[in-house]
Specification:
11 helices, 223 residues, mainly alpha
Length: 223
Amino acid sequence: MLELGSKFLLSYFIGSLMGSIIVGRLCGGVDIRTMGSGNAGGTNALRTQGLLFALGVIIVDVGKGVLATALIPGLDIPGIATDPAVSRVSLTIACAAASVIGHVWPIWHGFRGGKGAATLLGTLIILEPDMVIPLILIWAWLLVMSGYVGLSTMAAGIAAPMYVALMRLPHDQPLFYYCAAMALYLIYSHRSNISRMRQGTEARNTRLMVFRRKRQSSDDGQV
């Protein structure tokens, strides 16, 4: 259990390195948690600081999920022996989950983080790379149809355990449980988005709504 606990904590510390804070400090001390929605994730970074800033945030946030999942489970830590009672699959998933938890509640930044979607994507790149492209396509399709980033993220998150259930069960139950837990978490973390969508006040990125633009252009031509 010492190995599991140590590597879980190390992954959590890595997850606590917030991309928005790191990029913000490199850009003169910008803290997007004081801007827009107050969230430290890529969406708020894009809305408040633009594409290049948001891209840097996403690279860091995805990268730390990749790092925690790919490197930490096999890391030789001085003084801590490999625990034969802990399966390598369970250890890898625990490290992946810890990085997402760190992103959401970062110890280095007052426990004020993002919603975890980018870091979760980074963990899935390692855990099940074949699933990543379908999830991104689902996210992108819903985004251009609805304009809602939160809705697109939740839908992609829900699709993850469905994919594992169809393609990997019964042989990969730990991955299914991980994806199911993360899907429930994404719904919970987007509860304010759900409330605003029900009220009709949720911010919508109309620039990405391809079919809406076409419909508006057609309507303008009929006037």
